Amino acid sequence: MNSSAMSCFRSDRRVDPAVALFHSLSDATRLAIVRRLACGEAWVSDLMAGLGLAQSTVSVHVACLRDCGLVTGRPEGRQVFYSLARPELLDLLSSAKTLLAATGNALCPNYGTDAITTTDITAEVRVRA
């Protein structure tokens, strides 16, 4: 294998930001918040109504996205209006949508909607026993 190909396998700190970025978007609630904010700014009560989740849950996810630098807050009176911090995030979401369409919405067997869960494995073991 040539040195150029080997450099693709090197483990270094340059990968960590990409891992953090994709991890921050890997939660369904955080991704739903990002998708909503792609339509324009919103406050937590707007997100609560749209997601059907408690204020504390939404706030934790918004804080995560804010800490990652993906969401920013604009205080107005007693409310904070949240919006996407970087327009490049819209490009990333668009690219993901294009990739999913090109692959027929291929889902990873480990993480997709049909992924086998620990509960499934436990149930299967009980049936076999």
Commentary on this structure:
This protein is mainly alpha-helical and 129 residues long. The protein contains seven helices and two strands; from the N terminus they run H-H-H-H-H-E-E-H-H. A hairpin with a 2-residue loop joins strand 1 and strand 2.
Secondary structure blueprint with pairings:
Layout: H1 3-7, H2 16-24, H3 28-37, H4 44-51, H5 55-67, E1 71-76, E2 79-84, H6 88-102, H7 118-128
Antiparallel strand pairs: 1-2
Supply the key terms.
single chain; 129 residues; mainly alpha; 55% helix; 9% strand; disordered C terminus
Describe the structure concisely for a colleague.
The protein contains seven helices and two strands; from the N terminus they run αααααββαα.
What's the N-to-C terminus distance?
47 Å
Overall pLDDT confidence = 81
Indicate the low-confidence ranges by residue numbers: 115-129
The secondary-structure class comes to mainly alpha
Oligomer: single chain
Q: Within the largest sheet, what's the order of strands? A: 1-2
Write down the secondary-structure element order.
HHHHHEEHH
- Count the beta strands: 2
Question: How many DSSP helices?
Answer: 7
Estimate the global geometry from the Cα principal axes. globular
Relative strand content = 5-15%
Largest sheet, described in full?
A: 2 strands, antiparallel
Percent helix among the residues?
Answer: 55-70%
Radius of gyration: 19 Å
